[in-house]
Write a structure and sequence with these properties.
Elements (H helix, E strand, L loop, with lengths): L2 E15 L1 H6 L11 E7 L2 E7 L8 H7 L3 E9 L15 E5 L2 E8 L22 H17 L7 H15 L6 E5 L4 E4 L3 E2 L6 E2 L4 E7 L6 E2 L3 E4 L5 E7 L9 E2 L5 E5 L2 E3 L3
Helix pairs in contact: 3-4
């Protein structure tokens, strides 16, 4: 299955990847050679890099290593194609504008029959042909009313829509996803393939919280290299499977996390 990664931090941090290593870690089998993408938020906009090249062979990896783009919200996705051809328009994260800001979405799993009348799209339409992008367009149609009032919606209102969306897509198949509107980062853990077991089982996502009171050297995880900068930091990391031997916490089936500036919030 695909791999998800995200970061939320109090102060801007940077991340670079060894995508082959990242895709293989944790005993996950499969080539993960069908494209990848990473996004760095810059206030209401995002620097988005996607490539259909095989993980580890993309020339953009060297660019990311040599140009430490920093952000308080970072999303990344490594693709193992299960629906849709191997092409740029099927690489994640996906992005859309709503309410004068960029919204980003990445999904891990298979959502059978998502493209039905039960999941209307409104004015948002997929560019590619994946279930993941279709689900994102449906989510955007659900969120649209909140963002067209002339001012940002409350966290509680956003959370309620995300929770409703997650409940709608769970019956279709594995529904692990990460979504951000540039202010908050939402993560939904469901289920995925697990080493040594048939079928799909929770957990689908894990998270790790860190507090750094003094400047830290680069932090090397399995396939991910992080730099938290020179200020005291609060950081929360999300990943499909743990990237280190630290105390990563699995999300229970259907659990939703809301992150802001490195902190886990508890709306609702």
């Amino acid at each position: 299955m695909c791999e998800l990664f995200a970061l939320s931090s109090l102060h801007p941090a940077s991340a670079s990847f060894s995508l082959d290593e990242f895709a293989r870690h944790g005993g996950i089998s499969g080539p993960h050679k069908d494209g990848w993408g990473i996004a760095f938020y810059e206030e209401k906009d995002a620097r988005l890099i996607r490539d259909v090249a095989s993980a580890g062979e993309s020339p953009y990896l060297e660019f990311i290593r040599n140009n430490r783009q920093t952000s308080q919200i970072i999303l990344a996705h490594i693709r193992l194609a299960t629906q849709g051809e191997r092409s740029l328009h099927n690489c994640q994260p996906f992005s859309r504008e709503l309410g004068g800001r960029v919204h980003l979405f990445a999904h891990n799993g298979d959502l059978a029959e998502i493209n039905s009348a039960e999941f209307p799209l409104g004015r948002f339409h997929p560019i590619g042909d994946t279930d993941s992008e279709y689900a994102f367009c449906h989510l955007m149609s659900m969120l649209e009313g909140l963002w067209l009032t002339g001012h940002p919606p409350s966290l509680q209102d956003r959370y309620q829509i995300i929770r409703e969306f997650a409940a709608r897509i769970q019956p279709l198949g594995p529904a692990n996803f990460i979504y951000s509107d540039g202010e908050y980062l939402f993560a939904h853990g469901h289920k995925r393939t697990q080493p040594g077991r048939e079928g799909h089982h929770p957990p689908g996502l894990h998270y790790l919280q860190r507090t750094c009171t003094i400047p830290q050297p680069d932090n090397k995880f399995s396939g991910v290299n992080l730099n938290y900068g020179s200020k005291p930091q609060e950081v929360t990391l999300l990943a499909s499977v743990p990237l280190s031997d630290e105390g990563w916490r699995p999300l229970s089936e259907g659990e939703i996390l809301v992150l802001s500036r490195g902190t886990v919030l508890r709306p609702g």
